[in-house]
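Before a colleague's protein record goes any further, I have to sign it off. What it holds is a sequence and that sequence's fold in token form. Would you go through it and say whether the fold makes sense for this chain? The record follows directly below this note.
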Amino acid sequence: MTIPPENINVDNILHGLKDFGRFQVLQYAVISLMQIPNALNLLAIVFIGYPPQNTCKNLTDLQISEYTQDDENLSLNYGSCSIGVYNNSINSSYYLKTLPCVNGFTYDEPLHTSIVTEWDLVCSKAGLGEMTQSLFIAGQGAGALLFPSLADHFGRKPIHILSLFIMMLSALTSSVAPNYWVYAPTRFFCGVCQQGCLISGVSLSCEMFPANKRTLMSGLVAVNWGLGVTLLGVVAFAMRELSWRALCAVCALTACIGFFEIWFIKESFRWHFAKGKLEEGKKVVQFAANQNKVDFDTIWQKNVENLEELSELEKIDCQDKSDTAEEESIPREVLETKTTLNPGAEECSKKPSKMSSVAVITVLRDSGTRKISFINIFNWLMISFTYFGIYMTSNTLAGNRFLNFFMTATMEILAGVFLLKTLTKFSRRNSIAGFQIIAGLSLIAVAILKGLEQNNNNNIIKILSVCFTLLGMLGASGAFSGVWLYTPELYPTNLRSAGVGLASASSRTAGMLAPLTRLLAARLPWAPGTLFGTGCLFACALLFLLPETRDQQLPQTMEDLKILQNANKKPQVDYVNMKQTAPTS
């Protein structure tokens, strides 16, 4: 007997298996290892694309003789992108002409330090290094469009492992790229597969736990990501004397964990049930029950076999509604089970209709979802822009660049821990807004300190600048993790994917622009902090125009969303009659 997938309450099965049994904990721990290659390959550009100070190489004696024509009054000034020729007379010195860096460049770091030093990505080529990160983010956007449907069709596990291996091959290819034009496309394909690995991996992780644990899982994902980013700082420091190619190869080879996952991780039985593969799902549930030391037969009988009997009875009842004898033959225990396992089931005379996919234009057509979407788009854009921008400009901070990156990444772990605490005690909006306020005020303080630093080379100012940047990352990372949980809760079921997709697309756009802030910081050190800080504070203000979703049932329809929005409006008070009236919609 085939059971409609929507009739199987997977959450009840998960509760029967124990919310945090040995099976779920081990599976989650192994799948969480994907954060290592995902984080390393995403943010390795901070080190692989590091732009050290550069100056023009000195001219040879023959070239000096040619350009100055042996005039002893002429002198050369070697700049970062040009060579100035000056006439030094007795009373004054004045500029004559500018020469290009005909012999290339010298750097204050070895030539093998980064792609910038090896391929001279400075001056007229400045920005090409940052462009590779923009290509990676563009690849993430393509992967976000491609892999969800593939994971739904072929399963989470095969897509997850396939993405890991292709990402490893792409990153290994980039480590041996002979020139920039071979390296850049590999970054794009690496981004595509990184997103495929992340999407399928997160789906696998979350589908092992019941819905009431989604807040906890959101915080744990943030902590795991922070651990992966922190590891990059340690690896880059340990390999600081080696070529960028060695670092790139090591980041690629971390994806070898896919070989272990082939054997260890199981496909999501939630996916098996959704695809009608009852036997395959049954095997996974049985394996989980054995590992968790719970009775499989009790769980299966209560949540699946009784539903088979109910489905058969409903089919008989639909064939002849007037035949009451059939209904009288139903055992009392089964009737009681029906109301327990399938509450709110529709009458069998109503044929279930499939939820049609809704285009993004539909989200923007309705005034309620349009307002939510525009606020979300701006919110995600600013949070993503700030998050990636802080990492890309971390090498402009005073002190050791490896230590600065490590401390910045450590803030992500703290942000995940604090997010868990705040989401369990405060509302979604207040939690996210708190992180955005921390980020906004801290980064505005950084902008002010950077402005002062230009005129006053004071060590205290430099230390304060680093401290406030770390606070800014704490806020940006916490807000980023928070909106991943909050945004899906703002849309009805048939618009949820489109709504999250719009927000995610805006974050990809911001991620593509963020690397350019490193170029901006080189010219105007105070400008990135100003953009990040004011943007976060404005996004925070807009956040309070959205409804609160904590302890609220996820909206299924547009009517549910309107109820949610009205529930968040403050009741109006009639001060004449001192009566409280309901808010007008």
